[in-house]
Specification:
five-stranded parallel sheet; two-stranded parallel ribbon; 13 helices; 51% helix
């Protein structure tokens, strides 16, 4: 509980700087890129995306959804890192802070897209029910998105349909609604740490939490390197990578250290539209093309290359 109170107190000051950094009008920015900016632009780029707004995963004891969101927003601003959020309208039902989370996200100038209303699995519900749930999510998104472009779609569970006819029907339906797909080319299963963190917090197991912190950063490093290795082996170059994260409590706790890690690894940060302007993502922007959404694993498989195993996740027995 005490850790959450300290976190909440520190967020307010950070948000002052965050709002200034994100909201500065173009007229106040130098038109000529600085040497540091030129250096950053030469780095491989990551577009940060956060799923399950406004409420991902279990809350730790004493946790607060709005503190989680504000902490993440402040860390993004401190690192000058754009981000794109994906909303499920039914998440956070009954939590008075859920609307405030969405308002804080948009007030920071961060865009928002569609993740279906109920986080439904296409492979389970079929194309008609899936498209209906995506459509059901639109009024809530439009209400908070304002005049920003919210026609970006992230498949829950990254499931795009095991059957080609189902996959094609959904792509056609999304295309008719003007969507582009938010691909994923970098991830490390951060959701599993959010679940484990809630369990360990309930047990007041500080040793286990410290172990989670170490393993979170180790998995992030390994998976970032894995994405780079796959991209360079299959494509001969770095693509702009699209990273999947979630708006969870442990992500909030770790995001400053995670962004520092990526900076030390030589990455810069870009927006989702800028990343997906790369030719690798052509099928994500134009849904008349056949799916599924391109992945680095598929690109490597197509060339007969070995695809390394993913870094391990915390198991369900951690703090069980």
């Amino acid at each position: 509980m005490r850790g959450w109170k300290v976190l909440a107190a520190g967020v307010a000051a950070a948000l002052v700087a965050a709002g200034s950094a994100l909201a500065a009008p173009p007229s106040e920015r130098s038109s000529a890129p600085s040497p540091a900016a030129k250096t950053r632009s030469a780095r491989p780029q990551i577009a940060l995306t956060f799923d399950d707004l406004p409420a991902h995963g279990p809350l730790p004891v004493g946790g607060d959804r709005l503190v989680i969101a504000r902490t993440i927003i402040a860390a993004l601003a401190q690192h000058h890192a754009p981000a794109f959020g994906f909303m499920n309208a039914t998440f956070g039902a009954g939590d008075s802070n859920a609307p405030k989370v969405l308002a804080a996200w948009r007030s920071a100038g961060l865009p928002i897209g569609n993740h279906t209303a109920g986080h439904v699995n296409l492979d389970t519900v079929g194309s008609s029910a899936f498209l209906a749930d995506a459509l059901r999510n639109e009024p809530a998104i439009a209400a908070v998105a304002g005049d920003s472009d919210w026609h970006w779609f992230r498949y829950p569970f990254l499931a795009e349909g095991q059957d080609a006819s189902v996959r094609d029907a959904v792509r056609a339906g999304l295309r008719a609604r003007g969507y582009r797909i938010a691909a994923v080319t970098m991830s490390f299963g951060d959701y599993a740490w959010n679940d484990a963190f809630a369990r360990c917090t309930a047990r007041h197991d500080t040793t286990a939490i410290a172990t989670l912190e170490t393993s979170y950063l180790a998995a992030a490093r390994a998976q970032a390197q894995r994405s780079r290795d796959l991209s360079r082996a299959a494509l001969g170059r770095d693509i702009p990578y699209v990273l999947l994260l979630h708006l969870g409590a442990f992500d909030a706790r770790m995001l400053p250290r995670l962004l520092d890690l990526y900076d030390r690894m030589g990455f810069g940060f870009t927006t989702l539209p800028e990343a997906e302007a790369d030719p690798f993502y052509a099928g994500s922007r134009d849904l008349s093309q056949r799916g599924p959404t391109a992945t680095l694993e598929a690109a490597a498989n197509a060339k007969g290359l070995l695809v390394p195993a993913n870094a391990p996740l915390p198991t369900a027995d951690v703090c069980a």
